[in-house]
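Hi F.,

I've been meaning to write this up properly since the lab meeting, where we talked about keeping a consistent format for the predictions we share between groups. The idea is simple: the sequence comes first, exactly as it goes in, then the structure tokens exactly as they come out, then a line or two of notes. No screenshots and no reformatting. I'm using this chain as the first example so we have something concrete to point to.
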Amino acid sequence: MGKAKVKWDQTGEHLYETGVNHAILYPYNTTTNAYDDGVAWNGITSIQESPSGAEATALYADNIKYLNLISKEEFGATVEAYTYPDEFAILDGSAEIATGVKIGQQSRGMFGLAYRTEIGNDVVGDEYGYKIHLIYGAKATPSEKQYQTINDSPEAITFSWTLNTTPVEVEGAKPTAIVTIDSTKVDPTKLTSFLEILEGKDPTTEGGNDGVAPRLPLPDEVALHFAQG
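Output, unedited:
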């Protein structure tokens, strides 16, 4: 194959990412040791992915830098939202002791999270594609809630949670807590069938389809689903 000169700013190659939507919560069931069916999480305003670690510690010998030891990388995130599904309340340390009556300071559960970010370019704008982000083994730390009087500039209360994660196994790679799928690079047919796994599918009378419950596939299943062939 012949060599080509590097070119910049080609039409259609001005890519960017924006937005966050299609958030789905998957509570982890400690009885079945699997994620329960997903539920929609409305009102999310931002998700900030926050990797940490991977810091170098220099070792010296013979009056020179001998090598660098790299610490283990961790994955965390911050979620901000105007509201949250009832299923998240238990994961956030609440328990219902009577209908409509909840207490706090309870054990916090583990969960998975899926959401999309939009990919845009200079030709079609925000509709170029999207990325699906899958977070595994998350736990939320306590969050502040600030209540203010209603005035002439009313604002809705924003909830915020810091997430810490425990990575899951990946065949042939190190454990991970985050998987990202780029709709512009995977097979469209496989992407459609994957969305039916992730988001579920409504039942239809044609063909006797009983519907598909939304569930969170683990990284190995994701890789197998999008594998070539």
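Notes:
The mean pLDDT is 88.
The longest strand covers residues 125-140.

If this format works for you, I'll send the rest the same way.

G.
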